[in-house]
Amino acid sequence: MQRTLTIAKREFRGYFNSPAAYIVICLFLLMMGFFFWNPFFLINRASVRNMYDLMAILLLPTAPALTMGLLAEEKRQGTIEILLTMPVRDTEVILGKYLAAFGLLTVLLTLTLAYPISVSTLGNLDWGPVWAGYLALLLEGGAMLALGVLASSWTDNQLIAFFTSGMICFIFWVVSRFLPFIPQQAASVVEWLSFDYHFQDIVRGVVDSRHIIYFLTVIGFSLALAFRSLESRRWS
Amino acid sequence: MNDVMIEAQNLVKRYDDFTAIDNVSMKVRRGEVLGFLGPNGAGKSTTMKILTCFTSPTEGSAKVNGCDITTDSLGVRASLGYLPESTALYTDMLVLEYLQFAAELRGLTGGDIKKRLKAVVEETGLGDVIAKQIRALSKGYKQRVGLAQSLIHEPPILILDEPMSGLDPNQAVEIRDLIKDIGRERTVILSTHNLAEVQVACNRVLIISKGRIVADDTPEGLRDRAGKAHYSLTLQKQGDDGFAKQAEAALKNLPGVEAARLTEDEAGELTYEVIPRGNDDLRPVLFKTAVDKGYTLLGLKREGQNLEEVFRELTTGPAVTPTNTKAAA
Q1: What is the ipTM of this complex?
Q2: Do A165 and A64 contact (CB within 8 A), yes or no?
């Protein structure tokens, strides 16, 4: 556990050692600002209801950008050789890196609290649904990051990792919008597999354990596959 | 007390249709500095990656400090320090941060970290750059950071993959001396294709070629094996053409001389190659003979076959089984 945290700490600091994290955070907040305030006064209601959908969309490129280098860059640079010949388990490496990305996601989401806070000064804001919304974002974002770590474990090219995980996340997100075109029997399965089905429920305030378990399963499954992929180097 | 620190048995590593190492066995004892020598692509790095548990062998087994590389990989990794060929470090970190990170991953805590940091920084001469970003360091300093990282937990075994490649001669000498110092208390395996380094730093040499071990000996032993020393003698030409024959005959008749022949006749200088019969130094005899016969001696050199030639001979021919099986016994 201590080693997992050591790795997480290094990765997290690493984000801020280069301009990458700042650029990602700035872009996210800029786009968010634009798309949030644009329709806000048209609706003329002290609600942040559409903020969560917006953030979920913005996370589609953001999460892969945060995870693309985690393993791919270590492989390209060769730094992974020293790391993996230290007495650390492969699981600790994967988990540590995931935690670092998750930490940055938390920072990012915390910064966006500026929106509900400023809205609450304009009118009466109900904070209950806000927390539910943020929980949904943390879970969905967490799942995206786990898929990103997985994609990063497959290649030594950051760009390929970015597009691979971006595509997988996009499919998970978009598939619920195609339900009408899918045969009835399959539709319910596909709907259950999609991010949005669970996301929307939580945002609506239905913080059901089924939804939480769904996201945790995606995270666990992705990280387990990433572990397998990292381990496979020994046998190739 | 068992002092075999590394024991590899019949290691084989195959990649699809390419065999990187083929039946590599070795024993390395405590306090040995083993030079692992071979041309590029011979399997040095692969062997090291197997011993450090970065990759697994297709066949065979190995024990490092008593831990099996497949069943107790954490134990193996805890007992060794490793410097990979690429010396790839996290370039965005400060030297101090990086070493701290390595120490923490090695399981050191609090006061121990400080103590060991201080010790390795001193040992590797990193004091001046401790607060610099690794990307800003020269290759030599990066190499030192890599070494410092491998030493931070005082491992009994060090595995260094080409620690001196890419350094300028001064840096190479510094690193070599450093490794020599380190090797006094630890078991070190270092790979290289520079023979001079092996002669200075190592007390045992393993030559690997095309995935097989072709020699296992001391640097001196290797040189002896390469053949006896011979002498090159240059005389000034005197008189007519008969002189060359005359001098050759005189040399041949000396006690302790197996053969002598004229190898060069140029610009009034005659160069002979003299092969000795025993191991005694023939130079005094050759000099006295020249003086007695009234020859003008222009040059006298004793030449041993050097390691380069041995290396070339062993690694360019077809793969052969070790002729000296001292370590395999």
Answers
A1: 0.88
A2: yes
Residue of A75, A85, A231, A233 to mutate, interface with B, max B Cβ within 10 Å: A85
In a domain, B186, yes or no: yes
Q: Are residues B121 and B245 in the same domain?
A: no
Provide the residue range defining the domain that includes B47. 4-225+310-316
Cβ–Cβ below 8 Å for A7 and B105: yes
The answer to whether B231 contacts chain A (CB < 8 Å) is no
Among A96-105, B64-73, B207-216, the range scoring the smallest mean pLDDT is: B207-216
Tens of pLDDT, residue by residue over B111-150, are 899 999 999 999 888 999 999 999 999 888 998 999 999 9
B33, B186 contact by CB (below 8 A): no
Domain CATH for B272: 3.30.70.3100
> Do B284 and B189 have their domain in common?
no
Give me the number of domains chain B comprises: 2
On whether the CB atoms of residues B79 and B65 are closer than 8 A, the answer is yes
B64 and B121 fall within a common domain: yes
Q: What is the CATH number of the domain that holds B164?
A: 3.40.50.300
Q: Say whether pLDDT at B81 is over 90.
A: yes
Estimate the share of chain B in helix, then strand, then coil, as percent rounded to the nearest 5. 35, 30, 35
Same domain, B293 and B187: no
Whole-angstrom Cα distance, residue A58 to residue A9? 25
Contacts B146 to A, Cβ<8 Å: 82
DSSP H or E run through B266: strand B257-266
Residues B159 and B190 in one domain: yes
Q: What is the pLDDT of residues A82-125, one digit of tens each?
A: 999 999 999 999 999 999 999 999 999 999 999 889 888 888 88
The answer on B120 and B240 residing in a single domain is no
Q: Residue B307: what pLDDT?
A: 66
Write down the pLDDT at residue B319: 43
CA distances from B219 to A163, B198, B227, B281, B301 (A): 53, 7, 13, 21, 22
**Residue count (chain A):** 236
Tokens of A231: 């381990």
CB of B15 within 8 Å of a chain A CB? The answer is yes
The 10 Å CB-count burial string (b at 16+, else e) for A149-179 is bbbbbbbbbbeebbebbbebbbebbebbeeb
Instruction: With CA atoms as reference, report the closest residue to A59 among A217, A226, A215, A223.
Output: A215
Q: What tokens appear for B71 in the block?
A: 């069943």
